[in-house]
Structure formats: structure tokens, C-alpha cells
Write a structure and sequence with these properties.
By secondary structure, this protein is mainly α. It has one domain. Helices cover 73% and strands 0% of the residues. The mean pLDDT is 91.
Length: 352
């Protein structure tokens, strides 16, 4: 297998494990009794704020790479063709999931009122706030990633132009800017870090670099930073300059994950095949898990005293919430694929 094909295999293999990391970001149990103390605070910070945070930047890197690979987006015909694809794969699913969640919240509130009970978390719909529900504060909150990808798609000719004219040095400038200006905002509701990691992936495509070959010299430095940073950065999470350290950590963590999975794809074909087969669930899990499923899973776990009685219990609760949400998402996907495959395809942008 050539290194270019190997990188494509790595991306396909990595998507499901990265999706598990996204679930873990949203699955932290509430230590309402204060049993965990500083120990569980350290564990929760390590998992939720460090170890798992590589997922979304990695997805942006992959998106940037494939957006610019073989595409001159400064040409109107190419740009127009890519925009048409993104209407189906990004814009339509983004709107459908947020509208669905909006209807779900309104229906839940109205149903409670109809039965004479007080809604636990009442949702009052206001037409004047429609833009907030669908964009500014997207209701299906993990879909901020899709929202940023939509913006990146719209400005992709500018990204292509900036990368070409600067010979890629614009990525270094973005990196420095994101360190110096932690809250850097170029466009409202749009993360400058999204632009950085998308451009980082796009740079590899524009230069025609072989990702695996180019990253391989960074294997040991990236592994060292990833391992040491994961266990030490939680200790300084509350520091003012934490985010200055976080960005290099995230960047090298992506390198470490890519090279680790390059090794897996090369030496463990059965595991690779299994993970690539699970790739079909990724977008659906990403979009649906925050639509009640995480809360349902957390509600189930909260009813079992063991999970809130000790630090091991809280750690197990963390994993259980994520695994329950994962299982429910996958079962729902299978049901919808059997019963309403066309509807499922619409909600997943054709990723079925």
C-alpha cells in the first residue's frame, strides 16, 4: 500500500474511534455528592478536556485535506460544483437535525403541559430567536462543527488563495495568532481554530505532500508530547496560559494518532476492516447522540447508587453513559436503515 492510500485508510479507520472521543466529551457524570473530589476532577479534566479534544481538530484537518485535494477552488466551476455537493452533505443535514430537535423540544414541553404536569426543562419557542436556534446557538450543539464546515466551504477559495500566495506560511501565522489571541474571532459564531486546522489539512493537499511520509519524522516527539501532555496539562487546566499550551498539544496529538493508526492499518488488517465497517455509523451518532440520548443514558446511570458512591463508580459511570448513548445510537440507526432508508440518507447527507 502506498503512503497516500495508507493515509486514506487511516482516515477511514480513525473516524469511529474519534467519534467515541466526541461521545466522551459529552458524557461526564455529575458528581453531585462530591465523592470524587480532586481525584475525579483530575480524571474528568484529563479525559474531557485533554485526551478527547483531539477529535474535532482532527476532523477539520481531514476535511481540509480532502476539500483541497485535486480541487482548484479558485476556479468558479470547481467551486460551484463543490458547493452543490455541500448542500446535500452539510447544509441539508444541519438544518434537518436542528429543526428536528426544535420540534422535539417544543413537542416535549407541550405534551407535558397537555397532561397537566410541569415540564422539567420547558422550551418556549420564539420566532425572533429562530436564527439562534438554527445558527448562533444551534440546538443540536455538536453540529457547531458542521456550521463551521459550512463557513469554511463558503470561504474555501480564499483559503486556497491564501495558502497558494503565502506558500503555506499563512498556517504558521494562524497558529501564532491562535496562541497570542486566545479568543480570536474572525467571523461571529465561527472558530478561528477551525480555520487553522482546516488550513493545515489543506496545506498538505495543495503542496501534494504525502501525509504519512511528511509526518513520520515527528513520530517520537508527537508521542512524547501526547503522553506527557495528557497527564500533566490537567494539573494546569485552571491556569491563564493553559490554552497557550493546549494548541501545540492538540496539533502533535493529531500527528500521534495518525501515525499510530498508520501502524494499525499496516499490521492489523482485521481490526482495520472492522473499524472501517463501523464508519457508516459515525455521522448519525455524531448528530443524534445529543438529541436526548446522552440525557437518557445519564438518567439511567443516575438511578444506580453504585455509580455515585465512589471514584471507581464515577469512572465506570463515565464510560457507561458513553457506551449507552453509543448503543442506542447504533440501534436507532439500524432500525431507521431498515424502515426508512431514504429519510436516514437525507439526515446523514447520503452517508449510509
Amino acid at each position: 500500500m502506498s503512503n497516500t492510500k495508507l493515509f486514506s485508510s487511516v482516515v477511514l479507520t480513525l473516524r469511529f474511534p474519534l467519534m467515541i472521543l466526541v461521545l466522551l466529551i459529552h458524557s461526564l457524570p455529575t458528581d453531585s455528592n462530591g465523592i470524587g473530589g480532586d481525584t475525579f476532577l483530575y480524571i474528568g479534566t484529563l479525559v474531557k478536556e485533554l485526551f478527547t479534544r483531539v477529535a474535532v481538530p482532527a476532523f477539520f484537518v481531514f476535511s481540509g485535506y480532502y476539500a483541497l485535494k485535486g480541487h482548484n477552488l479558485e476556479q468558479w466551476g470547481t467551486y460551484k460544483a463543490e458547493l452543490k455537493k455541500k448542500v446535500r452533505t452539510l447544509i441539508l443535514p444541519y438544518l434537518l437535525w436542528n429543526v428536528f430537535y426544535l420540534l422535539l423540544l417544543v413537542g416535549k414541553t407541550q405534551l407535558s403541559l397537555a397532561f397537566g404536569s410541569t415540564p422539567k426543562d420547558p422550551f418556549v419557542f420564539e420566532w425572533t430567536r429562530l436564527h439562534e436556534y438554527l445558527w448562533t446557538d444551534c440546538l443540536d450543539y455538536p453540529l457547531w462543527f458542521i456550521r463551521d464546515l459550512i463557513v469554511l466551504t463558503l470561504i474555501s477559495p480564499l483559503i486556497h488563495f491564501a495558502l497558494r500566495i503565502s506558500r503555506g506560511y499563512i498556517v504558521a501565522l494562524l497558529f501564532i495568532a491562535n496562541i497570542v489571541f486566545v479568543d480570536l474571532t474572525l467571523i461571529p459564531t465561527f472558530s478561528s481554530r477551525s480555520l487553522l486546522f482546516f488550513s493545515f489539512g489543506g496545506l498538505f493537499a495543495l503542496k501534494g505532500w504525502d501525509p504519512i511520509e511528511k509526518l513520520r519524522p515527528w513520530l517520537y516527539p508527537s508521542l512524547a508530547v501526547w503522553i506527557v501532555g495528557t497527564f500533566t496539562l490537567p494539573l494546569v487546566y485552571s491556569w491563564r496560559y493553559f490554552y497557550v499550551l493546549e494548541l501545540p498539544y492538540l496539533t502533535l496529538s493529531i500527528v500521534a494518532w495518525v501515525l499510530l493508526f498508520a501502524f494499525i492499518c499496516t499490521h492489523y488488517p482485521r481490526l482495520t476492516h472492522m473499524l472501517q465497517h463501523l464508519n457508516q455509523y459515525v455521522f448519525f451518532i455524531y448528530a443524534v447522540h445529543a438529541v436526548l440520548l446522552i440525557n437518557w443514558a445519564r438518567g439511567i446511570v443516575d438511578r444506580i447508587p453504585f455509580f455515585s458512591s465512589s471514584i471507581p463508580g464515577l469512572c465506570l459511570a463515565y464510560l457507561t453513559i458513553a457506551m449507552l448513548a453509543l448503543a442506542m445510537s447504533m440501534v436507532l440507526y439500524r432500525v431507521l436503515r431498515r424502515c426508512t432508508p431514504r429519510l436516514l440518507a437525507l439526515f446523514c447527507g447520503g452517508r449510509v
